[in-house]
């Protein structure tokens, strides 16, 4: 693999892995699962919703009846309610099992598309120079012992150092953007001014 190609792929995979860490794997899994179920399990969910609405309707009707005055009708509704509960439990169990399978597949896919390739690249290309930095940009000890880790040609940037720098820059930029656009602004604390000659208390924002 050419150095430029290796640099592109390791950078892309590292950024994607960090983005997934921000959004949360669980949110991504839920999004994929919802998309999957809409495409393949829509009829099953429609059936579940229909039975659930019917069960709610029966329960509402049953609650309006007196078991003593309308025993036959109340018993019939109660039997139908139990039958619907069994059907709903079976469908719910099937959907939950399907959800577990899909989420396991997604987790495995995420590992094989981000974590595994990054690890393999770091091992396989550990002594490959991605690019070179002109002499004098960094102190001599960094050229010999840091940027060229693990002990490559002086001035060459290896995959370990590049991934470290890329991660640091990514998370620094994220913290900056989060501070300005995501985090809620904290209001200035108010200062209480108490008049010694009266019981009046006034509030004033601190300058």
UniProtKB/TrEMBL annotation:
Pfam family, one: CHD5
Residues annotated as transmembrane: 6-24
Record flagged with keyword Transport: yes
Cellular component GO terms held in the UniProt record: endoplasmic reticulum membrane; GET complex; Golgi membrane
Coiled coil: none
Domain of life the protein comes from: Eukaryota
Gene3D superfamilies documented for this protein: Helix hairpin bin
Positions in the Cytoplasmic compartment: 174-207
A GO MF term: protein-membrane adaptor activity
Keywords: Coiled coil, Endoplasmic reticulum, ER-Golgi transport, Golgi apparatus, Membrane, Transmembrane, Transmembrane helix, Transport
Lumenal side of membrane: 1-6
Membrane-protein topology: Multi-pass membrane protein
Subcellular location: Endoplasmic reticulum membrane; Golgi apparatus membrane
Gene Ontology terms: biological process: tail-anchored membrane protein insertion into ER membrane; vesicle-mediated transport
PANTHER family: GUIDED ENTRY OF TAIL-ANCHORED PROTEINS FACTOR 1, TAIL-ANCHORED PROTEIN INSERTION RECEPTOR WRB
Assembly information from the UniProt record: Component of the Golgi to ER traffic (GET) complex, which is composed of GET1, GET2 and GET3. Within the complex, GET1 and GET2 form a heterotetramer which is stabilized by phosphatidylinositol binding and which binds to the GET3 homodimer.
Family, per entry: Belongs to the WRB/GET1 family.
Role description: Required for the post-translational delivery of tail-anchored (TA) proteins to the endoplasmic reticulum. Together with GET2, acts as a membrane receptor for soluble GET3, which recognizes and selectively binds the transmembrane domain of TA proteins in the cytosol. The GET complex cooperates with the HDEL receptor ERD2 to mediate the ATP-dependent retrieval of resident ER proteins that contain a C-terminal H-D-E-L retention signal from the Golgi to the ER.
UniProt name for this protein: Golgi to ER traffic protein 1
């Amino acid at each position: 693999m050419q150095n430029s190609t290796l640099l592109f792929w390791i950078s892309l995979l590292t950024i994607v892995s960090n983005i997934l860490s921000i959004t949360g794997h669980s949110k991504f899994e839920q999004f994929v699962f919802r998309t999957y179920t809409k495409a393949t399990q829509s009829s099953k969910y429609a059936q579940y919703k229909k039975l659930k609405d019917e069960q709610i309707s029966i329960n509402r009707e049953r609650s309006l009846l007196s078991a003593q005055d309308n025993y036959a009708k109340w018993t019939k509704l109660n039997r139908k309610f139990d039958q619907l509960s069994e059907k709903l439990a079976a469908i719910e169990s099937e959907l939950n099992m399907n959800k577990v399978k899909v989420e396991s597949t997604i987790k495995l896919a995420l590992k094989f598309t981000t974590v595994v390739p990054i690890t393999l690249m770091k091992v396989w290309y550990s002594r490959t120079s991605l690019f070179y930095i002109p002499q004098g940009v960094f102190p001599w000890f960094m050229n010999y012992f840091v940027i060229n880790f693990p002990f490559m040609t002086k001035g060459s940037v290896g995959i370990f150092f590049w991934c470290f720098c890329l991660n640091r820059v990514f998370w620094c930029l994220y913290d900056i953007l989060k501070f300005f656009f995501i985090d809620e602004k904290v209001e200035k604390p108010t200062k209480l001014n108490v008049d010694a000659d009266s019981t009046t208390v006034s509030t004033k924002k601190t300058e």
